[in-house]
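Issue 218. Parser rejects a valid record. Input:
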Amino acid sequence: MDRPVTAGQLKEKSLFQDSDGSAVPARTVCHNCSKLKIFLGALAFSFFAKGFSGSYMKSMSSQIERRFEISSSIVGIIDGSFEIGNLMVMVLVSYLGPRVHRPKIIAVGCLIMSVGAFLSVMPQFLMGRYNYERITVSVDNSSTSVSACSPAWSEGPAATDATETLSTVINAGCEKTTNSYLWLFVLVGNLLRGIGEAPIMPLGVSYIDDFSKEENSAFYIGLVRSSGMFGPTLGFLLGSFCASLWVDVGAVDVDAISINPKDTRWVGAWWLGLLICGAVNFIASLPFWFLPYSLPKEGENENLKMSHLSVQGDHCKMDPPAQPQLKFSEAVKDFLPAVRKLFGNPIFVVFIFLTILQYNSLVGIITYEPKFMEQQFNVSVAKAIFLIGVVLLPVTILGMFLGGFLIKKFKLHITEMAKFACITFLVAYLLNLLYFTCSCEVLQVAGLTAPYSGIKHISSSKHIYVASCNAECSCKVDQWDPVCGDNGITYMTACFAGCKSSSGTGRNMVFHNCSCVEGQGLGLGNSSAVLGQCQRESCTKAFPYFLALQTACAFFLALGGTPTYMIMFRSVSPDLKSFAVGIETLGGRVLGGLPAPIYFGALIDETCLKWGTKSCGGSGSCRVYDTKEFRNVYLGLIAGLRAGCCLLYLVLSVLIMKRFKPDGKEMADIKNAERSASKELDTANKREILPGSRTSEESEETYM
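Output the parser choked on:
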């Protein structure tokens, strides 16, 4: 027979909320472990996992571009496939989310992300070893030096070193035609990652907001999102490590490779980190399989009538409520009214446009920032990725956490959150404009950006590759194996420098008697050249200044990130929170995340001065850019997009203050006050009020 439950026993119970908002008994455990906290931990790790794999893929964009010999715009399409995956399921998942088992849907999403990561690795095992473009070849077992400037060389002698598979002879080691399309594996893998990630944000955030105290909701969400930022940090660190390793690590003699990680032909072990990402995503799926459909509202256990509980013996043993059945016809019927209700809210509409512009600028930065640092400041991609991981992302984490903390600490209303977000973004934008002061000289490449006579920049739009100093060398204009002359000028190949002899092997090879270097007024003893592009000292000096500006800008953007995100939650109906998150994420992904890497990449391609050549012919990836044009295009796009964001922030602030101006408080606060008063009344009369008598607002929260 069921016995009454004492007040002390009641505190040990936990209740579920059924679909009608009433309290029903649920199986509990006789210990203090909170399933909400378990969910918070699991969701934080899933945020970590998706950020880990996402940032790693972003950091490897340059390596993928060079490995498959594709343009930046194609890399943008690969990157955009992730957003296409989100588009395929985001609306459905976010709309049906509260009506399904949210933890299990998140678990399935993590598994799909794992499959996508493993699929992206396949080309590495289907393609042969990477053959980078080069012309400097030393004869095996011989001390004879090869002259770069000679008719014999121009005919393209084959490499004789059997330990090197790095042939540059046209059609020698020509890849099969099918290999040119193996990047589709990466595209499909990225597509699957997008599908798998779709349910994590809307379902996870709405789950927290449903079952936590309203004053704790912003803090929990900020905590989960900031905890998830450790994923991108470690993802970029892993990307930096893999980018410093040769793509065929363990299969070739690294000492025989004549290029270093600063060279634009260098390809890191992009595939290695994807194996780790797949394993992490798989682990992230495990906890969600053991979490319930719903949880008790945080802090409301004592408001429930004790007569609704029964205890068998001295054990906490109850049956879980059955999950409400989802009626598809009803869900479809309510879809259009829900859409009209959301887009009839002007604050939400402005918020969506703001999100789209922010996504455009953010995705463009994340995708091409390592390339920009490499071309503009002469740092290796591995170093650029490392700095993003250890400097910029930790600052971003701090800003996001601090933003959520300030909301909780000062109990900011929606009007105050709007002002705070607007001010922080304006400060970040002003710092963003200072990027243009970080100027850097254009790389002086003979025949591209500088004439062979040196010093002055070429004024003609047509490049002049051949000069009197190398006219007899019969150099091939489609080759790129740069050397730096003693005069500080970079030449496309040692042949274009007119070098007659060489010494050393591999990366230590030095060319001598270079006629084009001699033409700069140098003596015969100083007419040598070494492998690689010349260093630009002014760029190296400007880099710390640029990095400091980036750090400050990232902090202010992140500081206003959480308040901006909470504006959406406080300006829509409670029953539409999950759907609003899905629409916001969908709009940002489709109109921001999808097109941004494509048009950023296409415009960056326009600044390319020298394209690589595939072994079977055809254009490959870009070898050198006009750094001045690159900077203007890249920074100009970001500044333009963020200027639009500034305008929308101002409009959003005005709308919020105008809508919630009466009594100086927003509508959400009024509802909160009403619920607080109701809770106090329930507490005082908890033995007389039934759980089914809760307010309609509380019932609606079941579907938030």
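Fixed in the parser; the record now loads. The chain has three domains: 35-133+181-297, 330-439+538-660, 444-456+463-535.
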